[in-house]
Every structure is written in structure tokens, then in C-alpha cells.
Amino acid sequence: MTARDLIPIAVLTVLAALLPLVVTSSLVLNFLVFMLIVALGAQGWNILGGFGGQFSFGHAAFFGTGAYVTAILQLRYGVNAWAGLVLAVAAGAAVGWVIGFLSFRSRLRGSYFALVTLAFAEVFRIIANAASFTGGAAGLLIKLDVRAANLQFDDRAVFYWLVLAFVVSVLLLTRWIQRSRFGAQLVAVRENEDAAKALGVNALTVKLRAIALSGGVTALSGCLYAQYFLYIDANIAYGSWISVELLLAPIIGGVGTVFGPVVGALTLHGLGEVAKQFAGRIPGIDLIVFGGVLVLAVAFARGGILGLLERLRDRGRGMVTRGPKEVSHAGR
Amino acid sequence: MYSPQIILEAALNGLMTGAVYALIALGLTLIYGVLHIINFAHGALLTCAMFAVWVAWAWLGMDPYLAILPLVPLMFVLGYGLQRFVIGPASHGDDGNILLVTLGLSIVLENVLLAVFQSDTRTLDTDYSFQVVALGPLLLSYPRLIGLGVAVVVTGLLWLVLNRTDTGKAIRAVAKEKLGANLVGIDVPHVYAVTFGLGCACLAVAAGLLMPTFYVNPRIGGAFVLVAFTVVVLGGMGSLPGALLGGLFIGVVESLCGLFLGDSLGQIGIFLIFIAVLLVRPTGLFGAKA
Amino acid sequence: MLAVDGVSKRFGGLMAVDGATLALQPGGIVGLIGPNGAGKTTLFSMISGFVAPTDGRIRFEGTDITAEEPHRRAERGIGRTFQIVQPFAGLTVCENIAVGAYLRHAKRADATAKARDVARRVGLGSELDRPAGGLTVAGRKRLELARALATEPKLLLLDEVLAGLNPSEIRDIIPVIRGIRDEGVTILMIEHVMQAVMNLCERVYVLAQGRMIAEGPPAVVCADTRVIEAYLGHGAAARLKAEGAVHG
To answer: CB under 8 Å to C66, separation ≥6 — which residues?
Structure first.
């Protein structure tokens, strides 16, 4: 990675980190924390879906695993919340690896991979909803005990900074992926698996690494969700809503780009809030907007918002470079 | 232990529920077989149809079975329009895009229904909702028995449409060889839209058959769509008889799992079958695509 | 270095390759020719590991690789191009080639340097930053070649790299292939452009209906009765001879 790669990330980090000093409304901070948690999970989705081209419709499987592992370790085994966080990430990666191993071994891809991930998430949801170990349909309540050691803070801003730090770490991670051999091979597998194999790429290993990383990152966001809201149940943690959110953000923002998931999460939830302001009485109005934006993005903005911006920039440049040429033509 | 009679009754009940699953899956598999796309909005479209049946009953006092008659053309038109003017143009012919567009559509449809009807669960009752038919020692639900009969008839009709009419021939031609069909002058986007419309029309029938014994809320489609995917994968993507048999089988499995595992775990059998089929027989089911 | 020993492939009722045997010594260019549908590409796919043979063994540098995955064979030094070009359309030319270069160079800087080097050798030096999807047919063929070369193969399998090119493009690319050979890479090429085969190959194998029917220097093989009949039908050789006698 060069300095040029890191500058945008650094600038964004500083700006975002200063935000709680300006914004003191707990409502807005709440919104920002939730949005960053979604962004983090979406970054996880983007590693597999964006760089690897394997569209998962069931990332709730990882989000929920992160949330439940954190909660259960603390509640049932008295494990420290920070240790729980590490184990949650490991569990997410492991679940990812297993689902990946089963699916990629059977050469599932495209729509079939999407369906099988969806089914896995549903199986987890049904089990979590029925088993007493996971608190059944009543869910799990993490005891309120505000101490840094418990990953609970009385100031929302601190939690915001914590989630931001993780989001920035994953930005760096994805930037590294983009610049590494692993990333090149992952993108090659996305573009054409057979051609990649002929060039010595072990497609199965590359995809397994991607899904394990992806699962780990998304589990981290699930863990943070549990720690922030201190309550989870099967329909929250393993619900299809989160699978959808995690895939919407990168697709809207810019699939397979470093900033796409963050931009997408911000845009979607920003739009959702605006819609709620205008038509707060109507239930599901934000989701109507999400769905509409998804269809529009696929129809008119392949590459998402970042792709759109890039095209606008290129067009702008094209005009600049074309300008003088036309003049010289006229001169002749 | 359960007496054989209870198990048999559960199996028969499952068979009858399965018939409706088969109808739902029929539309899905037809769309898959011809357009080679997975229609994620299928569940939400079913919910639309179910609400339409409920509205016809609650506001117009129409019998749910009778409501099927006007609803079939309505759903056909809706499906035709969606494919022709939204899904087709928006997805630029890319599989991944189609998946996303239909997902987006399903989110929009579900939440529009939520906005209009709120999240309440609604039922309708007819005087035959709880009627039973005695078959020897077994008591079978009358509306479900009707569902089984109609599902078989509709599968037969659809088969006839595909195999005995010009439209059907065009559909099969497009399914087999899109480019060739285009070359001989078949309007491919039109055929796609007709197929999508037929798939949705199946949902109208399914909705009419479901409502006398089932309930509807804006999120109900999600529960059916995964079951329908399972049926389609199990029966072989694009196969009509496969969808019928797969639907019946899944209905029985669900009913028996519900009996032995309890309601909350009942559905897990379906998903495990789904995953297993996808993992174990991927080449047998869709090797041709690779 | 490569020994294909009685290899067969059956697709359902069709015997695509039937007991084909082939042996390559290090260095040189060997051609694999035959009429359409003879099973040449299938044989290539078996050598590179994309299709598992129904029967027979494949050895590379003395090791049995019959059951190895394609990427393992690439690591061993078997590179291939595809008849239907398979560029990573979303990536630039340089990034495409770098995927191959990463096989032997873990660092990005090294892999990119290698990619640029290879690109220059095959004449893509000026197209490095173009998206691969935007290349011409000839450009894509060169890209196929460059990617495979970037893996630093010992044996290079070229599947119709000249097909679809016009005569001047063929003239341009033939020295490139010869240059690769001169650096010590063994080449096995499927080719329909006979002028190129005559020009480049020291030896050719002829595959017809899945069977190896002839082997030897191109001039000799092309005069072989069995080969002529395989291409032109039964009795063709006799007719040709008769015509030759009349005209002679």
C-alpha cells in the first residue's frame, strides 16, 4: 500500500471521528452507530460478494452468529466481553468456512449460492428461535453493566468511536486485499474461474479465505450490535432483514470497492430517515425506498454511487481534454 | 408414540398443503425453465394475490374460490407488466442483476402492502372453512381436498397450454434456444413476459385455495418462497411434473416434521432437504448451465 | 517431459478421445492437428486438468499428474490458453497478466513488473492500462498468450491462438511464438492455419475421431494417406494421387 492509497481513508477517519464533538444529539449518534454497524457488516459482505463475486443472500448467518456467540459466552459462561468479541469473529469465520466448503465444493455459484446461503441463515434462525440454549423466541438480554471491560460505555460517543475504529480497520483490510496477490486472485476467480485456474489460482482456497474473512467481519458487526442494543432474538440476529441490508449497502454504494459499503450504508439509512421524516406514519416506508433504490441502482447505476461518480468524473475530464483539441483542430 | 392413524392423517394433510406448494412452485419453475431466472419476488406476488382474495371477500363479499376467476387475468397482467417493463429492462439480461431486481421488487411490494394493510394478520371465514370429509377413519379438511384437486387440474392445464397451443410452442422454443427463436421471428421479450404472467396467474389460483384455511399478512410470502424454491430444486429446475411431485413431497415432509419436532422446528426439515439437494446433486439438477 | 499414455474421454455415448498417446521432449514446437471435432481441445483440457480422463495416464517430468487439479499443474509449469478467449473483462490488461505473474511472484511490485515485461514481449506494451474487455480479437489472443506466459511455464499449450486473426496479424504473432520457444519453453499447439503449422512446428500429431492417426514432421504427415482421408473423406487420397498422375 502506498501513501496515496491511505490518504482518503485517513481523511475520512479524521472527519468521522470529529463528528461526535459537533453532534451531541443522542438520537443522531444512535443513528450513526447503527449505520456504522450495518456498514461494517456490509464491508464483510463486500469481501465475498464484491471482490469474490459470490452473492450471499444469507449473511445473517454470520451476523447472528457473532451476536449470539457474544451474548451466550457472557451470559452462560461469564466470558469477558472483549474475549467474546474475538471468539465471535472466530466463530463467524468458522461458520463462513464451513458454509463455503460445502457450497463451493459442490460448485454452487450465482443464484444457487445465493439460495443456499439464504437457506443456511433460515436454518440458523429456526434453531435459535426454538432452542432454549439461545433463549428461544424470548431472545437474550445482555445484562446492563456499564464498564469498559464489559464493552459497555455510558457515553454513546465512545461506542461510536469504537465501531468507527473497526470500520476503518476493515477499510484498511479491504485496501490491502485490493493491492495483494490474494485480492488479484479473488477478483480473477470472480471474473472467470476457469481462466484463473489455468493461471495457477487455487479457486477453492481463494474463495474459502474470502468467505471466512467475510464471515469474521460480519460476525464482528453482529457482536457490536448485541453489545450496543444489549438485546437479540432470532428474528433480529438471523432475520432476513439483515441479510438484505448487508447486500444492499455495497450494491448501492459500489460493489467491489473499498468505500462502497460505507457510502451505501450512509446513503440508504440517510434516505430512510428522510423518508421517515416525510411519511413517518406509514410503516415500512424506509424499506419501500430501499427496494426502489435497489431496482434503480441495478437499472441505471451499475457500480453503484461510486461507479456513477467515477463516470461523471471521467466525463468531466473528457471535456477538459477534448476542449483544447477542438481548438487546435479549428486552428488548423 | 403416535398412532398410525395420526401419522397417516398428518401425511394426508401434508399432501394437501403440498398441492398448494406445488401450485406456487409451478409458477416459479415455469419462469425458471423459460427465462432461466430465479424470481425472488414470487413470494411477495403471492402475498399480493392473497390480499386481493381477502379484499374481494371483506369488501365485496366474494367467495375466495370465485375470486380466483377475476384474479387470474389480473395477476397475469401484473406479471406481464413487471417482466416487460421493470425486470427485463432493469436487469440488462444479467443473472445477478435479475436476482437483485426481483429482490428489490419483493421488498417494495411487501412494504407497500404493509403500508396499506398494516402488519395485522387477517383471515376470512367461509362456511366451509372447517368442514371435513370422512374417509374411513380419517377426517380430511374439505377446502384442502379441493386444493389438491384444483392443483392437479391446473398442472394438467398448464401442461396442455405448453404442449398443445401455439403460445406454448413459442414458450418452449424460447426456453430451448432463445437466439434461434428470435431468428425465426418469435418476439422473445413478449414470450418472456407471457411466461412470467402465467407464473403469476398460478399464484392467483394458489391464493384462492389458501385463503379459506390460511391467513395473510404482508410478510407471509417469505415463508412460502423458500418452500417453493425447495420444491423447484427438488423437482428439477423447470420441470412441471417435478414441481407437482416435489410440492406434494415437501408438504408431507413439513407436516410430519411438524408432528415429530413441533411447530417451531417443523420447517427445518424443508431447509435441510433444500441444502442437501443443492449440495449433493448440483450437477444433476443444473449441470447444463455450467 | 510430457507423456500422454493411452488417454480416453467418453462423454455419454461419445468417445471424444480414444486411447491417444503423445510424448514431448523438452524444447521445440509440436503441433496437434486434426479435423473439427477430432477431440483436440478435449485432449488439451485433459493435459491441463480441466477434464478428467476416463482412461489412461498423463505424466509430466516423470510425475503422474492424471488426477491433479488445474492450478497444481500450472504450478508445475503447464500453461495453457483457451480457444475461446477468456479475459478477466473487468480488469486492465496489466492486471490480467499480473494474475498469471502472481503464481511465481508474491509481491505486487514484482508481479506487475513481470506483467509489464511479458506484455511488451507479446506486443501489448502500449495497452497496459486498457480494460481487457475493450481489446480487439487480436489483442485478446495476445492477452491469452501473455497471461499464460506470465506463469513462467515450462510447457505451453496453445489452443488455436491464430484462429480469427487476419494474415498480417498472423505474420506479426509468429515471431512471438518462436521467441517463446527460443527461451526454452516447450510448446504444444492446436492449429488450423496450416501455413503456420508448416512454418513453426518441428513435429505434428494428427488426431481424427479421437484417435492419434499419424505423427512426424509436418511435410511427411501431410502427405500421409490416412491424414488426407481424415480431412477429406474416404478415398480422397487415391483420387488425389490419380489426379496427380494425370497432371504429372
So the answer is: C53, C56, C57, C58
Q: Which of A196-200, B133-137, C109-113 has the lowest mean pLDDT?
A: B133-137
Rg (CA), chain B: 19
Closest to C1 measured CA to CA, from C149, C131, C153: C153
Q: Do B104 and A298 touch (CB under 8 A)?
A: yes
Query: Subunits with at least 3 CB pairs below 8 A relative to chain A?
Result: B, C
**What pLDDT is attached to residue A20?**
87
Closest residue of chain B to A103, computed from CA coordinates? B279
Residue A286 covered by a domain: no
| Burial class of C75 by CB neighbour count within 10 A (0 to 12, 13 to 18, 19+) | middle
Q: Note whether C touches A: 3 CB pairs or more under 8 A.
A: yes
Domain boundaries, chain C: 1-76+153-217, 78-152
How many domains does one find in chain A?
Answer: 1
Which fold, B4-289? ABC transporter involved in vitamin B12 uptake, BtuC (1.10.3470)
Q: How far is CA B158 from CA A322, B27, B46, B168, B190, in A?
A: 59, 10, 18, 9, 18
Question: What ipTM was predicted for this assembly?
Answer: 0.91
**Structural domain boundaries enclosing A110:** 3-243
Nearest residue in chain A measured CA to CA from C72 = A200
Q: How many CB pairs under 8 A join A and C?
A: 77
pLDDT bin (cut points 50, 70, 90) of residue A188 is very high
Cβ–Cβ under 8 Å, residues C221 and C214: yes
Q: Which of A181, A206, A255, A257 to mutate to test the interface with C (most CBs of C within 10 A)?
A: A181
Task: Provide the b/e sequence for C208-240 (b: ≥16 CB within 10 Å).
Answer: bebbbbbbeebeebbebeebbbbbeeeeebeee
| Strand (E) or helix (H) holding B135 | strand B132-135
pLDDT at C244: 67
The full DSSP string for A220-287 is: HHHHHHHHHH-EE-HHHHS-HHHHHHHHHHHHHH-TTSSSHHHHHHHHHHHHHHHHHHHHTTSTTHHH
Q: Is-contact B233 B21, C-beta < 8 A?
A: no
Q: With a CB-CB cutoff of 8 Å, which residues 198-237 of chain A face chain C?
A: 198-203
pLDDT digits (tens, 9 = 90+) for A73-98: 999 999 999 999 999 999 999 999 99
- Picking from A192, A199, A311 by the largest number of C CB atoms within 10 A of its own CB, the best residue to mutate is A199
Q: Which CATH architecture has domain C1-76+153-217?
A: 3-Layer(aba) Sandwich (3.40)
CB contact under 8 A, C108 and A194: no
Q: What are the phi and psi torsion angles at A141 (to 5°)?
A: -110, 120
Q: Could you state, in order of their start, the residue ranges of all structural domains in chain B?
A: 4-289
Q: Is C29 exposed, middle or buried (0-12, 13-18, 19+ CB in 10 A)?
A: buried
